[in-house]
């Protein structure tokens, strides 16, 4: 009963994604991440010493899940990616676009403490995780309140 939808519906929103990786002992790990979709790739933040970067350097296989859930509106959209990620050195322009998606387009309005302490755009240890997905799937189960005839969007993607 699930319906497909255009992935760009979710990729353009400032939603949280969940990055799933595998630890050295085979245990699954999950991390919430901000993301930017550009040029057929999902870009996520990392640091050279960060746990996700270490795990992906050892084993690049990963999954990313993005969900848009609005209980009151009856919307439940799920987007999933599978593939092998690569670690890239920080690209400050891309990083700024990613931050702008979540913090707004006016950098002067960004929280200075957050940018200097957490985001650290100019940190030489900054990394970007790049995933060009091997597989993409969408699952629109927004009918949980209304039934499939009223699922959002009304017409499924072909």
Structure description:
With 158 residues, this protein is of the alpha+beta class. It has one domain: Roll (Pnp Oxidase, Chain A), CATH 2.30.110.10. It is 20% helix and 38% strand. The chain has 4 helices and 8 strands; from the N terminus they run H-E-E-E-E-H-E-E-H-H-E-E. Strands 1, 2, 3, 4, 5, 6, 7 and 8 form an 8-stranded antiparallel beta sheet that branches. A hairpin with a 5-residue loop joins strand 1 and strand 2. The chain starts with 7 loop residues before the first helix and ends in an 18-residue tail after the last strand. The C terminus is likely disordered. InterPro entries: F420H2_bilvrd_red/Heme_oxyg, Pyridox_Oxase_N, Split_barrel_FMN-bd. GO terms for molecular function: coenzyme F420 binding; oxidoreductase activity, acting on the CH-CH group of donors. This is General stress protein 26.
Reading the helices and strands in chain order gives HEEEEHEEHHEE
The DSSP helix count reads 4
CATH architecture: Roll
State the separation between the terminal residues, measured CA to CA.
Answer: 14 Å
What is the CATH first-level class name? Answer: Mainly Beta
Q: Please tell me how large the radius of gyration is.
A: 17 Å
| Average predicted local confidence, pLDDT | 88
Organism: Roseivivax halotolerans
GO cellular component, one term: cytosol
Protein name: General stress protein 26
Keywords: Oxidoreductase
């Amino acid at each position: 009963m699930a319906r497909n939808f255009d992935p760009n519906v979710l990729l353009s929103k400032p939603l949280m994604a969940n990055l799933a990786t595998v630890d050295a002992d085979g245990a699954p790990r999950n991390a919430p991440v901000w993301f930017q979709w550009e040029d057929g790739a999902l870009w996520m933040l990392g640091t050279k010493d960060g746990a996700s970067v270490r795990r992906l350097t050892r084993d690049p296989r990963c999954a990313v899940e993005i969900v848009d859930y609005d209980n009151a509106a009856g919307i439940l959209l799920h987007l999933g990616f599978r593939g092998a990620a690569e670690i890239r050195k920080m690209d400050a322009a891309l990083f700024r676009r990613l931050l702008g998606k979540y913090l707004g387009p006016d950098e002067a309005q960004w929280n200075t403490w957050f940018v200097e302490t957490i985001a650290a755009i100019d940190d030489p240890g900054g990394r970007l995780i790049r995933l060009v997905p091997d597989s993409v799937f969408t699952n629109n189960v927004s009918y949980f309140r209304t039934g499939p005839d009223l699922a959002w969007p009304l017409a499924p993607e072909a």
